[in-house]
Amino acid sequence: MSLRTSYTLLAPVYDAIVSSATRPFRRISLAALESPTASQQILLAGIGSGLDIPELPIGPCYVGIDLTPAMLWRAQRRNTQLNQTLLHCGDVHQLPYADNSFDTVLMHLILAVVPDSHAALREAVRVLKPGGHLHIVDKFLRPGERAWGRRLVNHVLRHIATRTDVVFEDLHARQPQLQLLHDQPLDPTGWFRFIRLQKIPLSEEKRAS
Length: 209
Ligand SMILES: C[S@@+](CC[C@H](N)C(=O)[O-])C[C@H]1O[C@@H](n2cnc3c(N)ncnc32)[C@H](O)[C@@H]1O
Prior knowledge:
Shape: globular
Radius of gyration: 16 Å
Structural class: alpha/beta
Strand order of the largest sheet: 3-2-1-4-5-7-6
Helix content: 25-40%
CATH architecture: 3-Layer(aba) Sandwich
Number of domains: 1
CATH class: Alpha Beta
Distance between the termini: 45 Å
Number of strands: 7
Low-confidence stretches: none
Bound molecules: S-adenosylmethionine
CATH superfamily: Vaccinia Virus protein VP39
């Protein structure tokens, strides 16, 4: 089954399952947005049913992208006159946006969902402006963590909802342009984390090369 098919089937019950458990997580990530202004462009990659939309600070221009029309339809219903998120149907492995076009990219529960997390992160870095920020909320194994149970269920779950075997440090190692600013466990086991990174500003990139 493709993820688009499974999320089409999950869409009617998604909010009931996910909303209250993840609200504190998304609030922590959104509270870390730096002085949001009207000139800022913020991308919500894998926006889903738009659970972030009511929590977004008013001001910046928000763009949301998701693979599943049934999820986007729900996100559209969360748009208000005051805060409109522009919604696109598309794939986070191949974002339809120019290089260096967003001040911030939010990846809430998407990086450890998609089949190719490396490609999704590479795309997020590509569309981020130098000096821009990336906020990740997701579940990650620690390097070397055995977690047999999670690795076992991953064989089934990855086809219907999410991967459970992703090690953030492996993804980060392949994106040297990303500087780690903050890494915070969000639950007592530390499986869910809020990770904030910055794409190295151009001036520093030149100095490093
Ligand atoms: C777990 S939900 C997270 C939704 C939302 N970010 C949230 O925090 O509630 C995962 C979302 O990723 C979307 N998705 C899965 N694969 C995708 C892809 N390749 N490109 C874009 N969206 C994708 C699904 O349609 C679903 O809406």
